[in-house]
């Protein structure tokens, strides 16, 4: 039997929060099935997720892997599994902080009405911050290169977000392991991409004594910047060396010489 809406969760050593996260997701009346990809965990995350019993008709399935898959790779695994379960809408969440059911519903509803990629709008949340940094610059730059400056710094890096089955099949589940690449492929394919709701995940997603980061801030910055370069590479491969932007008839060869060295 087809399962219209599947929530896709990834977990690595989240025994502190997993049951609270599942309780909220499963209580959303629009979610029919929850898939939890537990990878590389050394705590009781998988055990607690398996023993969780939703109050309603929503089912929870745990996909456990001994090996740590790497950042966001669990999204690709969850998406592939959700497609085999017949999902028409896939909503993606993290398991290290709780998102209320009322804040999950708008993403599902947007996908149900035809928005292929329904994004979390954090641009307004971060608008007044004194420093945006290279990651925010990469996110806004990528959207500009894609002809979508209206998206600001919003994209598939931030959860929650939802994708239609058509979107996942178009970009391929594997691309979801590199969120900026998946966004670029979706936009270049002409899919409908919209910011549909704002869930402030900036504060709850900050590291703390209870929630230490497994990677340093520098490592995460390098990862995200590399992901955006991979997306830009896909744009250039699809649209040419200028990414589809005109040079306004500049009369030069395809490769301009470098400026002379100043020794």
Architecture overview:
The structure is a single chain. The chain is an alpha/beta fold. It has one domain (5-239): Alpha-Beta Complex (Spore Coat Polysaccharide Biosynthesis Protein SpsA, Chain A). The protein has 9 helices and 7 strands; from the N terminus they run E-H-E-H-E-H-E-H-E-H-H-E-H-H-E-H. The chain has helices spanning 18-26, 45-51, 73-84, 101-112, 123-126, 133-145, 165-171, 179-188, 217-239, and strands at residues 5-11, 33-39, 59-65, 89-94, 117-120, 161-164, 193-197. Strands 3-2-1-4-6-5-7 form a 7-stranded mixed beta sheet, with helices on both faces. The longest helix is centred in the C-terminal third of the chain and has 23 residues, at 217-239. The radius of gyration is 20 Å and the shape is globular. It starts with a strand and ends in a 24-residue tail after the last helix.
Features:
9 helices; 7-stranded mixed sheet; 263 residues; alpha/beta; Spore Coat Polysaccharide Biosynthesis Protein SpsA, Chain A
Largest sheet geometry: 7 strands, mixed
Reading the helices and strands in chain order gives EHEHEHEHEHHEHHEH
Task: Characterize the overall form.
Answer: globular
Q: Structural class, from helix and strand content?
A: alpha/beta
Work out the strand percent: 15-25%
Strand order of the largest sheet: 3-2-1-4-6-5-7
The CATH topology is given as: Spore Coat Polysaccharide Biosynthesis Protein SpsA, Chain A
Total number of strands: 7
Distance between the termini: 71 Å
Assigned CATH superfamily: Spore Coat Polysaccharide Biosynthesis Protein SpsA, Chain A
Q: Give the number of domains.
A: 1
CATH class: Alpha Beta
CATH architecture: Alpha-Beta Complex
Helix content: 25-40%
């Amino acid at each position: 039997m087809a399962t219209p809406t599947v929530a896709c969760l990834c977990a690595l050593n989240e025994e502190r929060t997993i049951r609270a996260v599942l309780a909220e997701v499963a209580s959303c009346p629009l979610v029919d099935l929850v898939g939890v990809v537990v990878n590389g965990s050394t705590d009781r995350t998988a055990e607690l997720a398996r023993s969780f019993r939703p109050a309603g008709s929503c089912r929870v399935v745990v996909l456990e892997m001994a090996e740590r898959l790497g950042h966001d790779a669990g999204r690709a695994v969850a998406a592939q599994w959700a497609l085999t379960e017949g999902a028409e809408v896939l909503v993606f969440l993290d398991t290290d902080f709780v998102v209320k059911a009322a804040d999950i519903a708008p993403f599902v509803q947007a996908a149900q009405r035809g928005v292929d990629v329904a994004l979390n709008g954090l641009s307004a949340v971060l608008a007044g911050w004194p420093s945006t940094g290279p990651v925010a610059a990469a996110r806004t730059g990528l959207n500009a290169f894609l002809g979508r400056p209206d998206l600001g710094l919003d994209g598939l890096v931030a959860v929650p977000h939802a994708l239609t089955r058509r979107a996942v099949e178009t970009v391929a589940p594997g691309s979801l392991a590199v969120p900026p690449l998946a966004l670029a492929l979706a936009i270049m394919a002409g899919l409908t991409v919209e910011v549909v709701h704002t869930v402030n995940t900036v504060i709850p997603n900050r590291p703390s004594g209870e929630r230490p980061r497994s990677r340093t801030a520098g490592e995460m910055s390098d990862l995200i910047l590399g992901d955006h370069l991979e997306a830009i590479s896909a744009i250039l491969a699809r649209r040419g060396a200028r990414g589809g932007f005109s040079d306004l008839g500049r009369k030069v060869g395809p490769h301009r010489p470098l400026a002379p060295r100043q020794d």
